Amino acid sequence: MPALPNKLTIGQTAARSGVRTSALRYYESLGLITSERTAGGQRRYARETLRRIAVIRAAQLLGLTLEEIRIALNELPYARTPDRHDWQRLSQTWRGSLDQRIADLQALRDRLSGCIGCGCLSLESCALFNPADRAAQAGAGAQYLFGEEPDPGSEPASLRRR
């Protein structure tokens, strides 16, 4: 395989990174990556941009938003390619957020299985967890799934958490 040139077209960058050209343009509009322009206005990405894209994709797989990724990458010197030390620091920064998401997902999973257990699948009319639609007082949406606790007296003792 021939060596990669130091400057890559958007098509070469997309093919090598596995990211669509539209995503590359979007990443650039958010300031996640940078490119230079040729005299004809075509984008040219430094070869090191591939590593930056890999960090972005890895962070997305962890469930981080592009805004969270942008904030973290902005802590690096301008346009520097993240190295192993940077990745360790970034991942340590994200650890607390990821731990919270894991806890939230586990709580959601536990509540969801309890709801499915009754068979009604409706928090709006569920006689066990939401009699008389009490959750509506807390606001729109699935309040119990968003962290509101059902009234302990509204569910049968056999379904209460121990």
List the helices and strands and how they pair.
Elements: E1 7-8, H1 10-17, H2 21-30, E2 36-37, E3 43-46, H3 49-61, H4 66-73, H5 84-118
Mind explaining what this structure looks like?
The protein is mainly alpha-helical. Helix content is 46%, strand content 5%. It has helices spanning 10-17, 21-30, 49-61, 66-73, 84-118; strands spanning 7-8, 36-37, 43-46. Strands 1-3-2 form a three-stranded antiparallel β-sheet. β2 and β3 (43-46) form a beta hairpin. The longest helix has 35 residues, at 84-118. The N and C termini lie far apart (61 Å). The model is unreliable at 154-162 (pLDDT under 50).
SSE pattern, N- to C-terminal: EHHEEHHH
Helix content: 40-55%
Enumerate the spans where pLDDT stays under 50 for 5 or more consecutive residues: 154-162
Strand segment count: 3
Biggest sheet: strand arrangement: 1-3-2
For the largest beta-sheet, the strand count, sense and barrel status come to: 3 strands, antiparallel
| End-to-end distance | 61 Å
Question: Beta-sheet strand percentage?
Answer: under 5%
Shape: elongated
Multimerization status: single chain
What value does the average pLDDT take?
78
> Count of helices?
5
Gyration radius (Cα, Å) is 23 Å
Q: What structural category do the secondary elements indicate?
A: mainly alpha
